[in-house]
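Hi R.,

As promised on Friday, here is the backbone we talked about, encoded as structure tokens. Could you run it through your design pipeline when you get a chance and send me back a sequence?
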């Protein structure tokens, strides 16, 4: 064979050239992929900055969650440019009332960034006091959000405790918390096998509580706001509205 007659240094040189060519092609492919990703991210950021309707807001959340589930997050608005742009004011397009559970990272699971979502978190995503409802009203009245989403989730500890027979703890506010949630999911108290149904009911009850606000009702009637319940699967990462 011809190659067997070549000096070793010639073969080594040819192999080095070949490896270098492959590496150059790989670098070019990586650069092209990164460029395409940046273009997609910029397009998404333009969409996020131009949310006009409740339908737009829900679409942006759904699209972001689809990217999250597919493990193809673009991480829009995750840079110091966005930090500077939002330093003087915020204008989120949606508010999300979520559980405090560490497995429910709201901005991440919707693939949103700084200034996109006004997040209100309580154990069991309950809106059963003035502080939480006042936060919702603030998002609607002063920040002009186009959507309010109450996000329940699989394996919620608050709802689990509310429908189970948990022992009371001395000098703890946990009992009061569970009592509040228990009142909202009464049909499922004592039925631990109905946790998912109880979680979904709890989210819907919070939506009803938010919709009792006359200001919210007015915004919804005028087509400027939508209030929805949703369910987050902690195993798949998917949100069902």
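Update: got your reply. Pasting your designed sequence below so it's all in one thread:
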């Amino acid at each position: 064979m011809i190659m067997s007659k070549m000096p070793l240094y010639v073969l080594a040189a040819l192999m080095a050239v070949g490896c270098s060519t492959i590496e150059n092609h790989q670098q070019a492919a990586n650069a092209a992929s990164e460029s395409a990703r940046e273009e997609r991210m910029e397009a998404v950021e333009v969409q996020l900055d131009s949310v006009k309707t409740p339908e737009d807001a829900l679409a942006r959340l759904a699209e972001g969650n689809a990217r999250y589930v597919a493990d193809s997050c673009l991480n829009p608005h995750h840079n110091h440019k966005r930090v500077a742009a939002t330093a003087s004011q915020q204008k989120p397009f949606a508010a999300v009332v979520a559980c405090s559970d560490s497995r429910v990272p709201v901005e991440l699971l919707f693939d949103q960034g700084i200034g996109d979502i006004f997040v209100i978190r309580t154990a069991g995503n309950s809106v059963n006091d003035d502080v939480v409802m006042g936060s919702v009203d603030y998002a609607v009245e002063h920040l002009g959000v186009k959507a309010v989403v109450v996000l329940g989730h699989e394996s919620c500890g608050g709802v689990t405790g509310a429908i189970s027979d948990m022992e009371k703890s001395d000098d703890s506010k946990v009992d009061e918390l569970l009592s509040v949630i228990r009142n909202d999911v009464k049909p499922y108290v004592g039925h631990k096998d109905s946790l998912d149904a109880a979680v979904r009911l709890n989210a819907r009850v919070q939506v009803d509580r938010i919709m009792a606000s006359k200001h919210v009702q007015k915004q919804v009637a005028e087509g400027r706001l939508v209030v929805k319940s949703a369910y987050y699967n902690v195993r798949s990462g998917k949100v069902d509205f």
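One thing I noticed while checking it: DSSP finds nine helices and five strands in the chain.

Thanks again,
M.
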